[in-house]
């Protein structure tokens, strides 16, 4: 009973954590990426399509990362170089991704999509840890992407919190004009954060289609990118906080499957709405501005 | 004023032609099928108008919020709550006089949407919470709330299918010309567009709203109450979107289903930006996007291209318009202009160097 629940909690939390870690980097650099949902969706589709036609998992993951990076590069041109409104540009990318993936998917695979399956990513057992009771399989017998998601958390915490580069990144998000005056290169820092986030969104999308569903359905991300945005807020822009928030929201999403087994009469929609409602409560309780980067979402242009 | 939107539409159409080619279809035939499906006959035309109506309401909702620099991404959720309110109140109005029944249902929808949007305005004003995040979150809460309602408390007996009890006859919108679905809601939308225009550009409150949108610091310096404006502007925006949802229930569906919006709240961003947030133009822009929605069904039947192609167009139009509006682009155009007017190539080079 507990083991399958933990298992699906980890499966739900992994893509959210991957995307949220990328969003953390981007927001630290002062940009809010509403288009993260679209980047994940594009990655999920093009990753699966590449894996399907090439029969190679590695090429599939590569294509997913490529799609995530391409989406974020489009955003970077608009919000970094042209300094347009980040929210509107990101929303446009979300709409675009739904359209593009839907059009190509239906053209290639008709409406049933039955044939559009790939073999699941292999699960890797981590030695004796995997035979631990209850937590063994959910945490220590998973695909590489799961280990990667949780493994890069200390790396990102270190880079953002302890290195000179992390300090520059945060300066770009707190006061871009001052950072530029110091010659830190705000445009370059923001581009780098967006590209790194593109890679992570790409992996998040790859996880959805190549390790979890093994197929594609339209709008398969189903708001997970937006949950990642919420995770960054609830996790207070702290990588370790993101882990806790991802697992919490992953558990809420996993509970909808376990409800009948638990014998409760609570409507499953309650659990589906929980991540979003909880984010609102956290926002209303802490306010938005305490830990958030000061210049978050403000268009910044050197010339004005 | 119209140049940039038209340029953006033209560029989007060119890019779409490339997408269609990549799909292995003929752009000419696809565009012909779109046109035929949107305006080809009387039925297509009425379908286009019917599909444009909710876009006018949500487009106006976006225009009001964006004019105040309040980035309301939640028109979809506000529309859903408006529909939910209408679908919950509607079945109770049996035996009411019809004008009163219709008005009650529409007002319920507007109130529902106003609350859903107003909460985000309040969070922004009192808790320093970005309305972007709160409106997105509430979109998903609204979707789940609707799903729960049609599976639970509002479900039609015996409960075989997730849909709600039908609204009373008194709550159903008049129809001009059945079986076409032409109805007075389009006129209501037209009237509201004019109302929003006068409100935004001729009233003190509208001036305050736009002043805050243009320059928050300057506006607060002139004692414009930023917090109060954020709350009522978001409530007004939500009310307009909620009204759109109620109209849909009263005129078209007559009951609630699990999905009440195919994304009208997001499409509205494209509608409003193409119209430069200008209410009367929103009607024209909504008809354009409504025509795409209506034509896309015919396009699928004739050419086998999924109707979601329309969303590619929406996304591209927004992105291109954003890019065309930037100072970087204006500088580019100015330098082209100067180049054209200048007497020699060298002069344009020297002028270009100090720009």
Task: Report the portion of residues of chain A in β strands.
Answer: under 5%
Whole-number tally of structural domains of chain B: 2
The radius of gyration of chain A is 19 Å
Give the tally of structural domains of chain A: 1
Structural class of chain B: mainly alpha
Low-confidence stretches of chain B: 342-355
Number of strands of chain A: 2
CATH topology of chain A: the name is ABC transporter involved in vitamin B12 uptake, BtuC
- Give the ordered list of helices and strands of chain B: HHHHHHHHHHHHHHH
The CATH superfamily of chain A is identified as: ABC transporter involved in vitamin B12 uptake, BtuC
- Individual helix count of chain A: 12
Query: What is the distance, rounded to the nearest whole angstrom, between the alpha carbons of the first and last residues of chain A?
Result: 59 Å
Mean pLDDT over the residues of chain B: 87
Properties at a glance:
heterodimer; A: 304 residues; mainly alpha; ABC transporter involved in vitamin B12 uptake, BtuC; two-stranded antiparallel sheet; 12 helices; 72% helix; globular; B: 355 residues; 2 domains; 15 helices; disordered C terminus
Short description:
The complex is a heterodimer of chains A (304) and B (355). Chain A is built from 12 helices and 2 strands.
Describe this structure in words.
- The complex is a heterodimer of chains A (304) and B (355).
- Chain A is an all-alpha fold.
- Chain A is built from 12 helices and 2 strands, in the order ααααβαβααααααα.
- In chain A, strands 1-2 form a two-stranded antiparallel sheet.
- In chain A, helix 2 crosses helix 10 (224-234).
- The longest helix of chain A is centred in the middle third of the chain and has 28 residues, at 186-213.
- Chain B is mostly helical and 355 residues long.
- Chain B is globular, with a radius of gyration of 22 Å.
- The two termini of chain B are 25 Å apart.
- The chains are: A mainly alpha (304), B mainly alpha (355).
């Amino acid at each position: 009973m507990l083991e399958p629940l933990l298992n699906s909690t980890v499966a739900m939390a992994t893509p959210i954590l991957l995307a949220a870690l990328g969003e953390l980097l981007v927001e630290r650099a002062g940009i809010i990426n509403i288009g993260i949902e679209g980047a994940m969706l594009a990655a999920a589709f093009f990753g699966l399509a590449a894996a399907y036609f090439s029969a190679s998992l590695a090429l599939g993951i590569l294509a997913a990362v490529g799609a995530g990076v391409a989406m974020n590069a489009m955003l970077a041109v608009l919000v970094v170089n042209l300094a347009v409104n980040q929210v509107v540009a990101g929303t446009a990318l979300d709409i675009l991704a739904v359209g593009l993936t839907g059009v190509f998917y239906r053209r290639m695979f008709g409406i049933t999509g039955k044939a559009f399956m790939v073999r699941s990513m292999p699960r890797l057992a981590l030695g004796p840890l995997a035979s631990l009771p209850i937590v063994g399989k959910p945490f220590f017998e998973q695909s590489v992407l799961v280990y990667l998601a949780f493994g890069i958390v200390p790396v990102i915490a270190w880079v953002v919190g302890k290195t000179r580069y992390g300090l520059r990144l945060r300066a770009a998000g707190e006061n871009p004009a001052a950072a530029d005056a110091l010659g830190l290169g705000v445009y370059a820092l923001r581009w780098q954060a967006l590209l790194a986030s593109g890679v992570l969104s790409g992996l998040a999308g790859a996880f959805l289609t190549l390790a979890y569903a093994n197929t594609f359905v339209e709008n398969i991300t189903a708001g997970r990118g937006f949950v990642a945005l919420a995770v960054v807020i609830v996790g207070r822009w702290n990588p370790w906080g993101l882990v806790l928030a991802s697992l919490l929201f992953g558990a809420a999403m996993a509970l909808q499957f376990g409800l009948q087994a638990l014998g409760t009469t609570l409507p499953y929609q309650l659990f589906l709405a929980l991540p979003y409602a909880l984010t609102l409560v956290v926002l209303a309780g802490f306010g938005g501005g305490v830990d958030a980067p000061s210049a978050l979402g403000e268009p910044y242009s050197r010339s004005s | 004023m119209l140049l940039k939107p038209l340029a953006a539409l033209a560029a989007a159409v060119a890019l779409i032609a490339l997408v269609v080619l990549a799909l292995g279809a003929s752009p000419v035939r696809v565009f012909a099928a779109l046109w035929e499906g949107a305006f080809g006959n009387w039925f297509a035309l009425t379908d286009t108008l019917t599909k444009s109506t909710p876009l006018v309401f949500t487009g106006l909702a976006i225009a009001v919020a964006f004019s105040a620099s309040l980035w309301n991404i939640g028109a979809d959720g506000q529309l859903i709550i408006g529909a939910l309110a209408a679908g919950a109140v509607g079945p109770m109005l049996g035996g009411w006089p019809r004008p009163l029944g219709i008005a009650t249902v529409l007002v319920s929808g507007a109130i529902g949407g106003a609350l859903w949007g107003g909460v985000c305005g309040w969070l922004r004003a009192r808790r320093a919470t970005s309305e972007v995040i709160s409106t997105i979150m509430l979109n998903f809460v609204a979707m789940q709330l609707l799903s729960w309602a049609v599976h639970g408390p509002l479900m039609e007996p015996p409960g075989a299918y997730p849909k709600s009890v039908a609204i009373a006859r008194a709550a159903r919108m008049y129809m001009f010309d059945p079986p076409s679905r032409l109805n007075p809601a389009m006129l209501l939308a037209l009237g509201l567009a004019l109302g929003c225009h006068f409100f935004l550009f001729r009233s003190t409150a509208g001036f305050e709203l736009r002043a805050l949108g243009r320059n928050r610091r300057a506006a607060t310096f002139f004692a414009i109450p930023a917090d109060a404006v954020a709350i009522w502007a978001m409530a007004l925006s939500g009310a307009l979107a909620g009204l759109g949802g109620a109209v849909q229930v009263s005129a078209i569906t007559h009951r609630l289903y699990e999905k009440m919006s195919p994304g009208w709240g997001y499409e509205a961003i494209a509608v409003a930006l193409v119209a430069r947030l200008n209410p009367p133009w929103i009607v024209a822009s909504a008809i354009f996007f409504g025509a795409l929605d209506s034509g896309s069904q015919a396009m699928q039947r004739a050419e086998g291209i999924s109707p979601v192609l329309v969303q590619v167009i929406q996304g591209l139009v927004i992105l291109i318009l954003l890019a065309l509006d930037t100072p970087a682009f204006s500088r580019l155009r100015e330098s082209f202009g100067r180049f054209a007017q200048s007497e020699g190539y060298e002069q344009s080079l020297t002028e270009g160097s100090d720009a």
